[in-house]
Design brief:
The structure is a single chain. The protein has about 625 residues and is of the alpha/beta class. About 35% of the residues lie in helices and about 15% in strands. It contains 20 helices and 19 strands. It has helices at about 5-15, 50-55, 55-65, 80-90, 120-130, 175-190, 195-205, 290-295, 300-315, 335-345, 360-370, 385-395, 400-410, 430-450, 480-495, 505-515, 525-530, 545-555, 560-565, 585-610, and strands at about 40-45, 70-80, 110-115, 145-150, 165, 215, 220-225, 230-235, 245, 275, 280, 300, 320-325, 350-355, 380-385, 415-425, 455-465, 500-505, 580. Strands 2-1-3-4-5-6 form a 6-stranded mixed beta sheet, covered by helices on one side. A 4-stranded parallel beta sheet has the order 15-16-17-18, covered by helices on one side. A 3-stranded parallel beta sheet has the order 10-13-14, with helices on one face. Helix 5 links the parallel strand 3 (about 110-115) and strand 4 (about 145-150).
């Protein structure tokens, strides 16, 4: 049921915007249904651009599952670029779905995937453009149910005023159930919107699950005099006291992959076929939120993966297949999978990529296994460069395996390596920063030994942000001054020109810090920044950090208190009522073990090199935290 009038209005403005093809829909393998023939309509809305959203595997998975059920019409919407937003507002065009050009306000459910905290103002833009009230309290029965899921839902409080229901955990089974329940409640009628939402979240347990749906309007935070959270109290007794993560109940091999996947109209960030081979990670790195929230470990069979990849290739014509997981080389049948994939896809000239490889013994054999296919650079995530710090973060990586794996890669035709590191970890010392440069330059020299010239090595350095539901959730984030010093120190230490040090934007990392560690009192900051023009903050050309810092000062929020403060283990955290997998007791034990290890690290440095060891000693005391007014424009 195409809205032809709206589509024609859109077409008239397309000559004035960049990449107009991203706004017209009609992609190969997209699904268009007549709304008059279905029970309910849901719009999966990605809070970033089309080029990023169409690269997101989870979006295609949920889209495929819902559209295979004849009861539902599932469609898509994305955040328009700045030029398109301006044109739409000037022409009075609402944000619409790509399948039928239906305004967002006309759907039964509008769902957002929360992949990156700095994209939260995009949700407000999309709601506003779609004709939906920004605040949950202002919506009526005529409005869609606004839901959110994804990693950002692990701390839902900063978005609480804007969202009706958060879905925690796996979405493949929870979302179809939620759609059916909400549409049934609408069909039955006779209740207020608030009562319908309460019945929705209360009914999850009746369906045999632990409660995974969280409606923040029914929970009220109570605070101590010092500003810390005292408790999260229910305002009605029929909603759950605690929320848990949904875990799919079927065998993972039986959860359908999106076949055939949609082929975007324009080139996207990851322009290839993604196949999720494993969910979860067998390791328990202390810094990693994903390894916590994606438990338990679940795998697909080799045959399922190969067949899905081949069917997707035949339905799309892509020339690359990407095997996805948190750590692809930890897949238990990794060598068999690699061999079968290349038996099938080598003759077709289709590349097989592994975007997430663990540095282990298998890294030594991987280059030989996939020899003969065009090579991208090898991408590895050692995170830190010294063994003692790896014990602290619980990432079992051996430098010997990394160096020999890189050597094999260079012998088999690879030309470059990209390494992911972090700075600002608890207990970080100057020798840890030295190690980043030393490791990068060692790999460059190995390239010269093998190929006669230094290898191209990129050290991508992120600024550590302690995440909810990790053992480091009680640790404060490092200050702007420290992160600037650390980045400059790394760049000064570099001696080989083929090695590049690329540090993530510090202002964006600090913004991520307050949005990931904040409570419900941070929600007005998102609204105020949006009102002041914050848009597409994940994009360098759009990010204007001064908007956020000015809004923060205007509201009188204490940035350092939220971001840099070390929190005692006894403190109630804003996300404690969201129980993820192993729970708080496990995280407390890991935090205490971490503190003991930090004492050992500090003592070792003190004994061996008091003047050089501790990077924190090169800076002012971490207790002297910057006030937001010190933030640069």
């Amino acid at each position: 049921m195409l809205n032809r009038q709206l589509k024609e209005a859109v077409i008239r403005i397309l000559p004035r915007v960049q990449k107009p093809a991203q706004y017209i829909g009609g992609e190969l393998n997209s699904v268009v249904k007549d709304h008059r023939q279905v029970r309910g309509r849901i719009c999966l809305s990605f809070a970033d651009t089309y080029t990023l959203g169409m690269s997101h595997h989870g979006l295609q998975v949920l889209y495929s599952i819902l559209n295979k059920d004849p009861q539902w019409a599932c469609e898509r919407a994305f955040m328009p670029w700045l030029d398109m937003e301006t044109e739409m507002r000037q022409a009075g065009i609402p944000l619409y779905s790509l399948e039928t050009f239906t305004p967002l306000r006309d759907f039964d459910i509008v769902g957002f995937s929360l992949q990156y905290e700095v994209c939260y103002t995009n949700i407000l833009t999309m709601l506003d453009l779609g004709g939906i009230a920004l605040f949950s309290k202002d919506r009526t029965l005529a409005d869609p149910l606004v839901i959110c899921g994804g990693p950002g839902a692990q701390n839902p409080e900063v978005l609480a005023p804007f969202v009706d229901v958060f879905v925690i955990g796996d979405g493949e089974e929870s979302l179809p159930w939620l759609v059916d329940k909400w549409v049934t409640l609408k069909e039955q009628g006779g209740k207020s919107r608030s009562d319908m939402i309460a019945e929705l979240v209360a009914s999850v347990a009746d369906a045999g699950w632990l409660p995974w749906a969280y409606a923040p309007q029914f929970y009220e935070p109570k605070y101590h005099a010092d500003g810390t959270l005292a408790a999260m109290q229910r305002t009605r007794s029929d909603v759950p006291q605690e929320i848990f993560a949904c875990i799919i109940r079927r065998d993972f091999d039986q959860i359908p992959l999106p076949i055939p996947p949609i082929v975007p109209n324009v080139e996207t960030t990851h322009d290839r076929i993604p196949i999720e081979i494993m969910r979860g990670c067998p390791w328990q790195c202390r810094f990693c939120q994903s390894t916590v929230i994606k438990r338990p470990l679940r795998i697909r069979s080799v045959d399922t993966i190969v067949n899905a990849a081949l069917q997707s290739y035949l339905a799309t014509g892509y020339d690359e297949v990407s095997l996805l997981s948190l750590s692809s080389s930890d897949y238990p049948y990794f060598e068999e999978l690699v061999q079968k994939m290349h038996e099938v896809f080598n003759p077709l000239g289709v590349n097989v990529s592994f975007p997430s490889l663990r540095v282990n013994h298998q890294l030594r054999t991987l280059p030989r296994l996939i020899k003969g296919v065009r090579q991208h650079g090898l991408t590895l995530a050692p995170e830190v460069a010294r063994d003692d710090m790896r014990e602290q973060i619980r990432k079992p990586v051996r430098n010997e395996d990394l160096y020999e794996g890189c050597r094999e890669a260079f012998l088999n035709g690879w030309k470059g390596v990209k390494l992911y590191f972090m700075v600002g970890l608890p207990g970080e010392r100057r020798i840890d920063l030295d190690g980043i440069v030393e490791m990068s330059e060692t790999i460059a020299r190995i390239g010269k030994e093998v190929r006669g010239r230094y290898a191209e090595v990129t050290a991508s350095v992120s600024n550590f942000v302690p995440k909810p539901h990790t053992p480091y959730q009680w640790n404060g984030m490092q200050t702007r001054e420290y992160l600037e010093w650390a980045g400059e120190y790394l760049r000064r230490r570099r001696r080989i020109r083929s090695v590049r040090i690329k540090q993530h934007d510090i202002e964006r990392s600090l913004l991520e810090g307050i949005l990931t560690r904040g409570d419900r009192r941070v929600a007005p900051l998102i609204y105020e920044a949006w009102c002041r023009g914050a848009r597409l903050d994940a994009w360098d050309e759009c990010f204007r950090p001064q908007i956020w810092w000015q809004a923060l000062n205007h509201l009188g929020l204490d940035f350092a208190w939220y971001v840099h403060r070390n929190r005692p283990i006894s403190e109630v955290l804003p996300w404690d009522h969201i129980n993820v997998k192993k729970g708080r007791e496990y995280l407390e034990k890991e935090q205490k073990r971490s503190l003991l290890q930090l004492e050992v690290l500090a003592a070792a440095v003190s004994e061996t090199n008091q003047s050089d060891g501790n990077a924190l000693g090169q800076m002012e005391s971490a207790d002297k935290l910057p006030h937001p007014s010190a933030c640069r424009a």
